[in-house]
Give the backbone structure.
Amino acid sequence: MPIFRWEQSWNPLRDLEREVDRLVQGVEFSVQGIRMPRQYPAVNIFELAHEYLITAELPGMLAEDLELTIANSVLTLKGHRNPPEIADGEISEERFRRQERTFGEWQRSISIPDRISEEHLSAEFNEGVLKIHLPKLEEEQPRQIPVSSGE
Amino acid sequence: MNRQDSNEERGEMAHPGQYVFTPPIDIYETEAGLVLYADLPGVSVGSLELQVQDNKLTLLGKVEPQIPEGAQPLHQEYEVGNYLRSFILSGEIVHSEIEAKLTNGVLRIFLPKAPKAEPRRIQVNTG
């Protein structure tokens, strides 16, 4: 059985680490601190005693540009966000000093529990935060099924 | 207006145990000045602090989590926290006339340019 000294066996890794450090040095990550969710919009889901609550951050959206639909226990959120040039007249691209915000069409579907009351679903949009309330259906009581004898 | 008028400083004033985010921004130039947009979802007018001091513009947006008590998180993709970002303004911005408006979680700041001084003729007197 071959025996290696512990440090020795790790040397190639350490060299690699040094190489990566050298490459990374001086590189500035421009996306640092900016939230980049994999799916837009990012959503949080909470459960309360009588409802489920879905929240999503959608700054700059207008309530009338938001479309919520529900079908087969899938809730679909859809909308579009206009870039600022539309609000401020024609702005040429070279006039932008910095552009970090994103615009355009987006859509996201979320599976929701079966046991919610679809007709009583409600949503509010304040300060760029969307909240969707999904009220739970009332618990069904077990129903007794009479059994008759075949006599 | 080609000087560095929007150098920001990151990572200062972080409150321990609380999330502080750098909001994404757009800056563009118009004839009258600079227009800055920042996404600040969850920030209300009352909890937004804008400050200009020594050529530094700082925006701090405080977000109060609006989740009812007893809510159990089932799925979480984003954190709720405060927003902080600061910029160095050029000397060409009239600080006293900066305007800001917050709509639907988006802050718009207008930074007016100072009017260019007309060249002034200097009389040279003979001794």
In short: DSSP finds two helices and eight strands in chain A. Chain A touches chain B through 39 residues (CB under 8 Å). The longest strand of chain A covers residues 74-81. The beta strands of chain A are 43-47, 51-57, 67-71, 74-81, 96-99, 104-111, 122-126, 129-135.
